[in-house]
Amino acid sequence: MPSLHWGRVLVGITCCVVTVTLWALCIWQLVLRFKTDTTDSVVPPCICLNSGICRDGACVCPEEWVGSLCEIVNFCEASTCTVNISESVIKNLTFERIIVGKYGNSKEKCKPDTVNGNTSIAIRMCSREGRTPTLEPPKILNCDENLDSLASQVETADPSNISAIASNTQILTSMPDQLTTENITVAANIAMQILKKPNISEDSQASVAVMATVSQLLDANETAFNHSNLINVTSSLTQTMEKFSLTSNISQPNVAIQSAPLKLSSSTILFSAQRDTALGYHQSTKLEIQENTPELIGGLSSEVQILLNITNNNNGRVGFVLYQNDKLFPSRIYQSHGSFSKQIVSGNIDGRTTSGVEIAFSPKYNTSELQLRDHACVFWDYTVNDWSTAGCAKGRDELLRCRCNHTTNFAVLMAFQIKYKYAKPLEYISYIGVGLSMAGLVITILFQIFTRKTRKFSVTWMLVSLCFSMLIFNTIFISGIENQNARNHSSDTTAYYQQHPPYDTTSNTLLRSDMVDPPADSWCTAMAVLLHYFLLATFMWTALNSAHLYLLLLRAMKPLPEHFLVTASVIGWGIPAVVVAITLGATYREGKALHYRQEEFCWLAALDQKQNFSVQKPMLWSFLLPVALILLFNIIIFIKISVSVIWKKNKNLTRNKKDSFMKKVIGTVAIVVVLGITWTIGYLRLISQEEKSLVFSYLFCILNATQGLQICILYTFRSPVFKKKVSEVFPVFSVQELPLYLRSKTYYISKS
């Protein structure tokens, strides 16, 4: 008898120790999460006008507005003007609203029977002088000329006709979104032929029109440049612009050239494109050339800088070209998907030599959604018509720095990864609920095992298997679902570059894409596999418990099928293993773990790169669909048991109706919990509206995170055996038995 007493005490102590340990693990995870949350940088909010968006503490304005609060007008209002189309034709032209720095097309079109039928007959530019946008005089199109006819004239045209050809080419390319690959090819050839003309820089009208044409080509659709026949044309055009940059100073929205004579005393020459913050966040660009500047300018006010170190004292000139995107440099190696800054700068010296070039980029991208992972310093190699890292080294502090031993078109290729966001309140609810569930599951498992001989009706193996798989899942969830990479998501790290020299050649490797997966985390992948397996096993055991209840309650007079428990064990633990193995084999690849799992936490992948739910991700076909089938099976069995057993009317009831009703409700709830039917709320969350989805999220989290606790309350704490054991181990909880005469009085009072 004493040994039995000490055995019960040992069971109680074991339950307490395990529960305290699990709770300590939950509290530790909460402390880590709270510490991480409080150390994240807080960006102050801002108030933006005119549909501006507050991002990183500053207003990002739409095209029509600039300024720190998007309060400054950045467009010219709709206008009309009267022009002479020819000696005998005077026409009224109408223009819609035009954004500053861009050309607007007239509503009036060329006649349908002309070569350029239904093409706008004129364009007009909106420019800015100080804070006031102003309209320039319109340029008139020759309706009997198209790009092909202009291309046939440009090579033999007289200098007096070059301006007209350049102007017509500019007008015909003034709607970039409608340009095809053929249009771009012809227009680029015309621009190249004009720029090669002798003394073309002295014809300011033609030069500006050509540069405006190139700027408009850079606004064409990305797909129009994805053609192998175009690469030779664009390469010839960019080389021609390098030479042209030695003699002119022209700035257009997407391309600018600057030149300057070199003095005998010049040892360095610095070209910089500065952000003009007077008009707001990420707006206009100010170009500047400085001589004898010892080093690059620090700070983030410069978009691009290039510093040339000059070695001899001959007379000469220097020219720079700045492209705002890389469409004239179509790479076969580097795949670009994002819409962030991809500026390219070219430095060219005539009559002098250089000992080296330093370049710095301050790229523009959405820092709230993207994290810069890596960059490479490259130049355009005309021998292979692609990017190359030869002769270049990279460095990084607040700027992306490059150092090369030659001059040409330079760029920095960037690789980003997505920053992931978290629903903080649901996290805390999950940790607390799962902690309670783990304690309840441990108590239930130990109770089922140690009291299996004292209970006449035993469901030990089925219920223990369900609780065990759920306990392992919850333990892994608490300790391993958070990806360690996610704790460093808040800022772009520079630790790597602080441990290396300012310029590093060995790490300057050519990048393949601008969107990359985060650093490999095999631990997170292993956690996702285990979570996948044990959660599927949990649902499989709910289905087996459902089948077991059906056999016990609806086939009460028949014995269980032969080897039922062995078959159930093979199904319960084996089928989830098969599903996980197939999923891993179909999706997981070395270095491509995100095809199988997510990054923000260690669970199955569900979203594509655009953060939309994808049917090709394993979350759907290896989890949601199997679980949906299991839940459907459980719901059918639940309805059958509820109607046929629990809520079936019994005329021979001997107890009062209220007690019977409560027992039916509790019995119904107990079956709902053990069959996991509350998980159906997760599917409602997927298909509901955003406002309702939040409510379903909280319900789903609270009900399912505490499922283990619910099982403990309904199947352990309410058990007469458990109450008896508790009263034996802890006498303070025991209820004194009433004397016989008091029980008799109580009976008669209750009866009356």
Automatic annotation (TrEMBL):
List locations, semicolon-separated.
Membrane
Q: Which InterPro entries match?
A: ADGR_G7, GAIN_B, GAIN_dom_sf, GPCR_2-like_7TM, GPCR_2_secretin-like, GPR128_7tmB2, GPR128_GAIN_subdom_A, GPR128_GAIN_subdom_B
Q: Where are the transmembrane segments?
A: 9-31, 428-447, 459-481, 530-552, 564-588, 620-643, 664-684, 696-717
Q: Which residues form the G-protein coupled receptors family 2 profile domain?
A: 426-719
Q: What is the protein's membrane topology class?
A: Multi-pass membrane protein
Pfam families in the record, alphabetically?
A: 7tm_2, GPR128_GAIN_subdom_B, GPR128_GAIN_subdomA, GPR128_N, GPS
User: For this chain's UniProt record, which GO biological process terms are given?
Assistant: cell surface receptor signaling pathway
Q: What Gene3D superfamilies does UniProt report for this protein, alphabetically?
A: 2.60.220.50, Rhodopsin 7-helix transmembrane proteins
Residues forming the GAIN-B domain are: 246-420
Principal localization reads membrane
- Tell me the protein's name: Putative G-protein coupled receptor 128
Q: What organism is recorded for this protein? A: Gavia stellata (Red-throated diver)
The uppermost taxa in this organism's lineage are: Eukaryota, Metazoa, Chordata, Craniata, Vertebrata
